[in-house]
Amino acid sequence: MPRIPGIPTKDAGPLLRLIYRFARRRFGAVPEPVTVSAHHMKLTLAGARHELAVQKASKTLAASVRELAVYRVAQQVGCSWCVDFGTMLQRLDGLDIERLREIDKYETSPAYSARERLAIAYADAMTAQPMAVTDDQVAVLERELGRAGLVELTHAIAHENERARFNHALGITDQGFAEACRVSRG
Length: 186
Known about the structure:
Elements: H1 14-27, H2 32-37, H3 41-57, H4 63-77, H5 80-92, H6 114-127, H7 135-169, H8 177-180
C-alpha cells in the first residue's frame, strides 16, 4: 500500500477518468503511480506527455540494451513496481526475461552481450551514490553506441532513476503486471 493513497476512479474528475480509461486500455489496469501522482494533475499531465514523447523518440538503441539498463536501475533503487512493470514490458517486446535472473552476474554471464554489459555497468555507475561514471566508461560507450545512442542510454537511465525513486519513496510496490502480462499491443 502506498504511503499516500491513489485517487480512486469514483473520486476522479472527467480528465482523470479519461487518463484512467486510457491507462486501463493500454495496460489492463491503471498503474498505481498514475493514481498517486494524480494528486497533482499538472505534473501527471506533464509526466504523461514526457513518457509518450520519450517512448516515441527512443529508437536509436536496441530495446534489449535500453531495457536491461532501465531494469537494472529499478532493481538497484529497490523499486518493486518498476521491476514488475519493466519485466512485463520486456516480455511483451519479445525480450528474454529469463536472463533477468542472472543480472547480478551480468559481468560474466553468457546471457548478456558485450554491449548489454556496458549498458548495465553504466546504469550501475549512474545509479550509485555518489555517481561513479568515469570518462573512460563514457568514451567506450560513445565508441560502441555513437553519440545519439549514448545520449539515449543516459536519458533512459536518468529517467528510470526518477521514476524508481518516486515510486520507492512513496511506497508504491508491484502490481502483478509481470505475472499477468496485462498489456495488450493492439
